[in-house]
Amino acid sequence: MVKRFAQVWADRNTASLEKLHEAGLTQHMIEGESLAQLHAKLEPLAQEWVAKAGTKGVDGQAALDFYRAELDAVAEEFGLSRN
């Protein structure tokens, strides 16, 4: 089911981006140092979530690590950027 969802998402994302490009939108990808800075700024939010999950008896770090690994695997399988 996850793979099917990912494929539908990728297809719709591609179609949406094509329409936006046709309408004159220029897409800029965040890469390199800018992407690293964005990840660094967002990491405290992830750690806050991990802490909140821990108060509910969930190993938040394990859950987050699993989720990120799944994102990486699906992105690789479908040739998508996870960023």
Estimated helix fraction: over 70%
Report the mean per-residue pLDDT as an integer: 90
Secondary-structure class:
mainly alpha
Strand content: under 5%
For the terminal residues, how far apart are their CA atoms?
22 Å
Number of helical elements: 3
- Tell me, what's the shape? extended
Low-confidence runs = none
Integer tally of domains:
1
Largest sheet: none
Total strands = 0
Instruction: Give the ordered list of helices and strands.
Output: HHH
Q: Radius of gyration in whole Å, from Cα?
A: 16 Å
Subcellular location: Cell envelope
Main location: other
InterPro entries: TRAP_DctP_sf (IPR038404)
Describe this structure in words.
The structure is a single chain. The chain has one domain. The protein has three helices and no strands. α2 crosses α3. The two termini are 22 Å apart. The relative contact order is 0.12.
Summarize the structure.
By secondary structure, the chain is mostly helical. The chain is built from three helices and no strands. The mean pLDDT is 90.
